[in-house]
């Protein structure tokens, strides 16, 4: 009986996001019809543009990788009841730190330089997140406001650095120098200049998801974080140090966003490129975490969907002349429906079944 | 039924004729694709001007064209590569932000030609990417002309300049503008402010407000993207003059935009594509200025300067185009023209 209900619950958990995605695609199709595009062509372009050739598949993975990390970042903080809007900024400082450690140190062997470069990005992201985390834990300052502001500080600070102290003096454009080869992640096909940009960063991201899952669900520290997220007062009463748990979750959240930045620098860009606006990985991470309901394994799937849609929005423009905003409409519809899961459940026979379940139990009692 | 048949026959005949006409061309028309940066289409300025160039390639030369707008800076590289992979003969990156991406992708696709607006690589770099054309503009030449207009319009002997980010391309606007002002009247005050952003009209407005109110400027030239829209709004509020940039911005405030420094990105894309498609092309930078009609004043209908001021500016335009006067490119050189 318990086995049966458990598998049913799992099935139910999955049903809502899947229906939300399908409805999101349908809503996107309606908007495409408005703009005069053919939705079938567009979705064919999306599929072939994301999976149609080895290069396209490689690019899709490149788009998915940072979203796994930022999704994990938001999920970890969310488990402690905190809303980390600052993943964007934490990722920027992660990119900065990795770029600086990557180019400033030379002559180190790969086995030292690469881990050091990645770690420095994680540490920088963690410290950046620790500021709003500390202010929240110590003074109760709202982390949403703080972490948003930290995003702007990171963005403009990076402008300053890359137009001044860390600018490559040999180039006219605002870029940092290129990191040492020993600090670059391995590209699976070809060398560092390969058009197959997929690299070992994806493995790091998947390992991170597994570790975060184990941390949250198999360790005491993770249990504390979750308890604080469910009910801080009850957690305090149970003897959990709420401030520490909150600060710890923000630190981990920041290091995950920092990891996203480190992977972008070490695997894709090889340098810090001046940003004129936020890249959006941190903000997309919020949607990814929401769609996955904060489950680290769900994040792998949700990040894949969002990565495919991001890459697909470019390929739909190129192959089917569909405006890039269409993908934004699909993404927003999906997140909207997942957030308002009651709507989707209402469409499905789930609730009735759930009621039957409860009724059945009561009867047996 | 009979009439339907007739229609079908006519359609068939027309179809065959068209088919024959097309098969008459031995070589397929070149395909040109452009990648926009995150600003994208609809900026009424830089990117839209590039799009005009793409349309001219399609309409006047019959090229197949396609464009892609980027969502984030990380899209530049895959978008350029996708166009190359889809068999586009010429691929453009619009804006110097794409300099690094164009360089990388051009190495991966040596048989595709690439162009970039607002960036030039070093000779050493071109050796590795002989398939790339860099287009730079002499913004200082066009800015010189609006500087002349400003100097002949001001009544307070004080004019202003609002830059976006403090970067070399914007310095050229500042240098040319100052030179135009001081070549007309070496004692005039020029107030310079860099707002630090290209996308904050509110900031542009507050900067221009203080120039108009506190510091008695009555003409302000902006080279600050949409930050400059705030400058134009401020000019409207104070009943003073603003000078637009990149495209004709008179429609934003018809009575308060004196003129605009036009930068013809479309000319770069159009002429650049022709250069790239010529056999024997090798990597280099082309600099476009007044002589090439790639920078200059807005059309006469959008000009609010006096006839004498306009005549003076046009006179300078001829002198500069003939190469008889070289407009300074760096603010430090322009500053030497100022006399206390």
In whole angstroms, the N-to-C terminal distance of chain A is 14 Å
* Count, helices of chain B: 12
Number of helices of chain A: 15
Write the CATH fold name of the largest domain in chain A.
ABC transporter involved in vitamin B12 uptake, BtuC
Overview of the molecule:
- The complex is a heterodimer of chains A (365) and B (340).
- Chain A has 365 residues and is mainly alpha-helical.
- Chain A folds into two domains: 13-37 and 325-365, no CATH class; 57-322, ABC transporter involved in vitamin B12 uptake, BtuC (Orthogonal Bundle), CATH 1.10.3470.
- Chain A is built from 15 helices and no strands.
- Chain A has helices spanning 2-34, 39-51, 54-79, 87-104, 110-139, 143-163, 201-218, 220-230, 232-237, 242-269, 281-291, 296-320, 325-339, 341-347, 350-364.
- In chain A, α3 packs parallel to α7.
- The two termini of chain A are 14 Å apart.
- Chain B folds into two domains: 31-137, Response regulator (Rossmann fold); 139-262 and 294-335, Response regulator (Rossmann fold, 3-Layer(aba) Sandwich), CATH 3.40.50.2300.
- Chain B has helices at 2-23, 46-61, 76-85, 99-108, 123-128, 139-153, 168-184, 201-213, 227-238, 265-277, 307-321, 331-335; strands spanning 31-36, 64-69, 90-93, 113-117, 132-137, 158-163, 189-194, 219-223, 241-246, 257-263, 284-288, 295-297.
- In chain B, strands 2-1-3-4-5-11 form a six-stranded parallel beta sheet, with helices on both faces. In chain B, strands 7-6-8-9-10-12 form a six-stranded mixed beta sheet, sandwiched between helices.
- In chain B, β8 (219-223), α9 and β9 form a beta-alpha-beta unit.
- In chain B, α3 packs parallel to α4, α6 packs antiparallel against α11 (307-321) and α8 packs parallel to α9.
- Chain B starts with a helix and ends in a 5-residue tail after the last helix.
- In chain B, 54% of the residues are buried.
